[in-house]
Design a protein that fits this description.
9 helices, 4 strands, mainly alpha
């Protein structure tokens, strides 16, 4: 199913950032797009997002949207996909909105992003070990609730159908793995099955390969600049989230 567009949509941001979520969704929906891996804080991104963050979606008609969850919901509504996002004015849509809000505002913003901000990017935002310790505990608390939802009845967060909420959740779980925050879920059989199921999807695999190529190119450039020595985070797929 594809939207009728006069030209491809444009998506701004490297695949190693939260842009991954939107690239995955675009591939799932079969929407034609142009990927511009522009960095956050750049002049080009600031032109479209006053917060200077990625991802940013640009419609051929000039409409601009940022924030990965908003973009993915919009894309599914744009093509009127029957299951990726439940129809409006339904209880299923309300649960979808609730789940997305928990993932974005609690799991990501109050957990993973705190670690990235005050540990991974501490030289910019200041190192705050206590904040990171609390964020880790809060991540696990929030994830327990989401795992409980996943198991009733499964196999996906909203039941039998894969949705845009799963795109966000898988990305966050992958992110938690790269920073060593997966100890509470990595041995949970239901979560392992869920991750395997989602990551077997052709759209995920295509964007994961895109991200790997992007990271390898970045590592090569760093080595060239530093005389053959890669930076510490050069091979971390979430090092720039």
């Amino acid at each position: 199913m594809a939207a009728t567009l006069t030209a491809p949509l444009k998506i701004l941001g490297p695949a190693s950032f939260r842009t991954f979520r939107c690239l995955w969704m675009l591939e799932e929906l079969g929407i034609e797009y142009e990927h511009l891996p522009l960095l956050p804080l750049s002049k080009e991104v600031k032109k479209y997002n006053p917060l200077r963050k990625v991802p940013v979606l640009i419609h051929p008609n000039g409409f601009v949207l940022y924030e990965s969850a908003a973009i993915n919901t919009y894309l599914c509504d744009l093509v009127q996909h029957p299951t990726m996002v439940p129809p409006p004015r339904t209880e299923s849509r309300a649960i979808y909105d609730q789940t997305v809000s928990v993932i974005i505002s609690e799991l990501d913003a109050q957990g993973l992003w705190i670690q990235r901000k005050h540990e991974g990017m501490g030289d910019l935002f200041t190192f705050v070990p206590d904040a990171v310790t609390h964020a880790r505990k809060y991540f696990h608390k929030t994830n327990r609730a989401l795992i409980g939802q996943l198991k009733q009845p499964g196999p996906y967060l909203l039941g039998p159908d894969f949705t845009a909420a799963d795109v966000l959740y898988v990305h966050c779980l992958d992110w938690s793995k790269t920073i060593g925050w997966d100890e509470k879920w990595k041995d949970d059989a239901a979560v392992v099955r869920y991750m395997t199921l989602c990551k077997q999807r052709p759209a995920f695999r295509k964007v994961a390969a895109m991200r790997a190529q992007e990271i390898e190119a970045s590592v090569t450039k760093r080595r060239q600049r530093k005389g053959g020595k890669a930076s510490e985070n050069g091979n971390n797929p979430h090092s720039k989230l």
